[in-house]
Amino acid sequence: MGALRLLALLLFATWLGCGVAHAERRVALVIGNSAYKSAPRLANPVNDATLVGGMFKKAGFDNVDIRLDVSAAEMRRALREFAGRTRDAEVAVIYYAGHGIELDGNNYLIPTDATLETDGDVLDETVALDRALFAVEPAKQLRLVILDACRDNPFAKTMKRTLASRAIGRGLAKIEPTSPNTMIAFAAKAGSTASDGDSRNSPFSTALVERLPTPGLGLRKAFGFVRDDVLKNTGYKQEPYVYGSLGGEDVPLVPAKSAAAPGPQASPQDAIRRDYELALQAGDRDAWEAFLQAYPDGFYSNLARVQLKKITAEDVRAAAADKARQAEEEKARLVAERAKKTEQDKAAAAAKAAEDARLAAEKAKQVEETKAAAAEQRRKEAEAAAAKALADKQAAEKALADRIASDKAAAEQAKQTAESKKQIDSEQKVAAIAPISSTPTLSSQETAKLVQSELRRVGCLAAPTDGDWNVSSERSLSMFNKYAGTKFDAKLASFEALDAIKAKPGRVCPLVCDHGFKADGDACVKIACRVGYRINDNNECEKVQDKKPVATREDAKPRDGERRKVESAPSKPQASGQILCNTTGCRPVKSGCRIVNSKNSSDSGSQREMCN
């Protein structure tokens, strides 16, 4: 029975080991969207997804799900099913290639059936990046999301905004994952766009399949190499970026082929040690005899014999204690029955001998227990020393490997630096001969229209975006300079100004309303005054004041002589074409008369009529 118990313990330990190994699973979900219904077809995402999915399969992933040209419903279903597979996985990876969009600082993946006519459609027709992070979260060791979705987004150019202050970024927005051991890799850093390249696959996916499956290469170094490769292959125009963090240990996507499992390396003594510990847990004679039958010689066999002697001493002590108890009971019985003195003396002598034997057995048992405890202590010390020696050896080997890898990386970095310097020098020489403009090939009207559109978004322009860079546009850019602290030339719509305005997430210029209107959020509403009040020059409601009669000055009335002269004038004089004006009013000059200045009047400006 004891041997069967030991065998059961060994089988149980083996089953546990197999269960742990089986739980170390790696799963991946790969999505590539090229055939968009409301946007031009993308050439590379389907090719990139196929290439990266094949890389995961060759790397030995337990499950790789590849989905191409998926709708919103299909993408959500794929993420939901993948979340179920990550619950018992150590490593979970999602790769997405296609269009993405950033709205108000949040990132969204665009399915093939999205139309995105307005910014409000983003919440209904796309899949939030947070949904992908939720799907990989159950993984125990590594959670990785790779986004080749930083392309120039055509939806952002045609989409109508429901609020002028709503920001739609260029590329994807920076993100900081909150879960530990989570990394998010962008094909291009936040706020910039990625290139599809001129070949069948993008520079980013090409670098991924080259670097990530390297056995034993930690992800931090792997993505560092990916960054260097993409920079080099795009002429230093596209820089991949990684957000999130890992712990101090290197986490490779593909384990090193020669690397052992975590913990002390397996040795011939490991199996014997495990069996010894199982027998020690059983703690009976059958277990130790079975162990000695399997391992008759060696360090652990000697320890097993010590443990077996301790069990034998315990059996002897138990038998002696039982015999002493029986002798004491016999002695007490004879005393109670008042047996003969000789019988009582004989029983007393037997009881004393049995007690002496019990004490001797107890002492022998204590001696064997002390020996067994000392042997067990020596075993633990020996195993600790062996483990320390092994750990020191592994640390030395790891330090050596790290130094070799560091030297190799430094040499490669120096090589790349030299190549970069050589390329830059070559470009500078070419630029000195024939300078090439680095700005996009857009007409001045197209550039002006883009700048006007961004100025409207940040609240600095109220006029339509017609591409005519007029006084209104110049005044709007001047306002942006004032409130944003920039110094762009307002007479010119430049790409530098366009990039600076795009970098602003919301309104920059304050909302200015016409007279009779006031600002309410991002809109101007008409001011309504109650009855008896009107809007004054300060755009405020004030009470209407009643008009008072204006007094007439006495000296403004005509003098009596002048009144008589006017009254004696013909009622309908013939007009001479001239008009005579004085303090009494204005009238036509009679025919044959003319106007002359009056020298006798106290008023130097008086005139009179002279007739022949």
UniProtKB/TrEMBL annotation:
BP-aspect Gene Ontology terms: proteolysis
Matching PROSITE patterns: CASPASE_P20, PROKAR_LIPOPROTEIN
GO molecular function: cysteine-type endopeptidase activity
Segments forming domain Caspase family p20: 24-154
Annotated signal peptide: 1-23
Pfam family, one: Peptidase_C14
Region listing for Disordered, in residue ranges: 545-612
Coiled coil location: 310-421
Domain of life: Bacteria
SUPFAM superfamilies noted in UniProt: Caspase-like
Keyword terms of this UniProt record: Coiled coil, Signal
Polar residues biased stretches: 571-585, 597-612
Comp. bias (Basic and acidic residues): 545-567
PANTHER family listed in its UniProt record: MUCOSA ASSOCIATED LYMPHOID TISSUE LYMPHOMA TRANSLOCATION PROTEIN 1/PARACASPASE, MUCOSA-ASSOCIATED LYMPHOID TISSUE LYMPHOMA TRANSLOCATION PROTEIN 1
Name recorded for this polypeptide: Caspase family protein
